[in-house]
Amino acid sequence: MKISVVGCGYLGAVHAATLASMGHTVVGIDVDAQKVAHLNKGFAPFHEPGLDELLRDGFATKRLTFTTDFADAADASVHFICVGTPQSKTSDTADLSYVIAATKSLLPHLARGAVVVGKSTVPVGTVDMLRGILARRPDVQLGWNPEFLRQGTAVKDSLVPDRLVYGVPGGKDSAAGLPVTAALDAVYAPLITAGIPRLVCNFATAELIKSASNAYLATKLSFINAMAELCDASGADVAELSEAMGLDPRIGNRYLHAGLGFGGGCLPKDIRSFRAQAQALSVPSVDEWMGVVDSINLAQRSRTVLVARDMCKGFLSGRTVTVLGAAFKPDTDDTRDSPALDVALQLAAAGAHVTVTDPKAINNAWMRYPQLRFEASTNRALEGAELVLLLTEWDEYRDLSPAAVGKLVRRRMVLDARNVLDAAVWRAEGWTVRGLGTGSVVEVEETATDVTPAVPPSKAVNTRPFVVGSPVKARSTRR
Ligand SMILES: NC(=O)c1ccc[n+]([C@@H]2O[C@H](COP(=O)([O-])OP(=O)(O)OC[C@H]3O[C@@H](n4cnc5c(N)ncnc54)[C@H](O)[C@@H]3O)[C@@H](O)[C@H]2O)c1
């Protein structure tokens, strides 16, 4: 089967390579010529474990190519739209301009009877809007197949997904939906044969399944982070609390780990888009609920800064601080709405001398925030630190030796904002260890001058100049 995948970022590049590995002939199309050139050399333009191998397999079998030319999609029978749907610059709504542009670019090249399937995360009602764009091609079928992969495990999630969701015209039992269902069954035949659950529904349900899933995950994370604050206020320990809660099978332990909270290119913008959808549909309960989830999440960032200040006896100004982690989570180089970088910016704005390090995300972080100081080597980043903050829980930071790190720093103080270190082991080496929700009450003087409120990174402002540390080679791609 010949398939096109439009938009080759974190979602589309993985999807294209996965489809090729299933035996399809796939052309990936992107407007970013540098990204396409990178992919055509067999290398992912971003860090995603296992993707380079999948790309190389696709090229070896000659089933996978990438291009900027939409005409190369002309002989494909199924087209997947995987372009970005970022938060609008002026509101909480999703910016659908890339989805609209991609659909319009495909339109002149669609073969008779082609099927166009959206995978991007979109607000409810988007398919109806796209149907208008495709109105003069009644032979073309439209479907929606939301994607649930997670960066860091995207390849595995695509090869063995939890479920497949098909949004089709008329929904589950409608004859109008049969051609789209049949086309997607042919695309995913190996997964269906392997027993992956497949759910067929109408467009609104397919669109909402993705938004509701992300809203639930965000709710669970913000819930446990709210409990962390209660633990700090009461002397309880959130790790023990969540472990006990998670043993109840009705609750489960996943996404029940307290810490700095979520970020990235999906969850934050998706819950804000969900709020906007709820407002448009006059469902204030969902709007208010998501508002609380969002504000608890953002508050974890300023809370981390407050604990850091508390550990520095009330004054961040002039302190030498090392931030471990720049990516929004481990196993990715994605720095979109990274909580770690947000905290680093807030610490810097409070006058601390901040050095940020990360195993994979330094280049992206540097391009996004050139005013921060970056250091590629973990050891060099730690030299002379008066406070170490663990903000992205990469394995190499979890596995740091407190004795070895103790020889590099000036003061043995660590704020483990991801609650992943073995505090007893670190304390045994003479470290002062704090986490979030570990029962240590934060004595905060709100009047202190060096505290800044939580702000989204895009709006954060530095008040002092910074020297960029060890030069790192700039990547050729920009997202
Ligand atoms: N990243 C994830 O883990 C993930 C998971 C599930 C769903 N999603 C959703 O998938 C969508 C894409 O997310 P992403 O993280 O891959 O974004 P991304 O920014 O990494 O990739 C988007 C790509 O689309 C390309 N593009 C933009 N306009 C185009 C056009 N008109 N024609 C062709 N290409 C175009 C961009 O150049 C870019 O390479 C979003 O809706 C996101 O919410 C992402």
Verbal overview:
Substrate binds at residues 210, 255-259, 263, 329. By secondary structure, the chain is an alpha/beta fold. It has two domains: 2-200, 3-Layer(aba) Sandwich (Rossmann fold), CATH 3.40.50.720; 202-479, NAD(P)-binding Rossmann-like Domain (Rossmann fold, 3-Layer(aba) Sandwich). Helices cover 40% and strands 12% of the residues. The strands form three sheets. A six-stranded parallel β-sheet has the order 3-2-1-4-5-6, sandwiched between helices. The chain has a six-stranded parallel β-sheet with strand order 11-10-9-12-13-14. The structure holds nicotinamide-adenine-dinucleotide.
Keywords:
single chain; 479 residues; alpha/beta; Rossmann fold; 2 domains; six-stranded parallel beta sheet; 18 helices; 14 strands; binds nicotinamide-adenine-dinucleotide
